[in-house]
Amino acid sequence: MPVTAPVPAPQPQLAGFLLSGDLARPAPLTVRDLRAWPQHEARVSFECATSGTQHHRFEGPLLHEVLCAAGPAFDPARRKDRLRFLIVVTGADGHHALLSWGEIDPDFGRAAVLLATRIDGTPLDGSGPQLVLPQDRCGARHISGITGIRVDGGYAGAAAA
Ligand SMILES: Nc1nc2c(c(=O)[nH]1)N[C@H]1C(S)=C(S)[C@@H](COP(=O)(O)O)O[C@H]1N2
Ligand SMILES: [Mo]
Once rounded to an integer, what is the mean pLDDT over residues 20-49? Predict the structure, then answer.
């Protein structure tokens, strides 16, 4: 009788995304990793040009906390140094949007932007996290299935070069 290896039980697919750019600790992350941070809740309503008004309850860490833990390449003591940084968020389908660091910084725009690990109680482990912007009237920046977040502090430098 040939000895056959036990067939492993299928694992649920875990969508990963890459935190990259001008960071001391760039890293591939999963939705499970995002649950290591305090989970904030946001009940949001947004309008969509095609599907009308939507209401959702999202849970997840603050984008600002996750990015700070990755060590953005600015001097944290100098407030002005952060203002040249951009955050590029990309979804699996190529939809992307830019945020400025100043928009989510507690010393400036203070937007409580989340990286959602759940939508309406349903885990997003399979599809990837969703960007949540409680202050947005329109839904278009609520990027789902995030595959990449890039922090870029080179904008002003490039312009000055
Ligand atoms: N990855 C990705 N996320 C996206 C979009 C998209 O095209 N791709 N569309 C946005 C838009 S326009 C809206 S209104 C919200 C909600 O879209 P839904 O109705 O398709 O859920 O998701 C946003 N997130
Ligand atoms: Mo939309």
Answer: 97
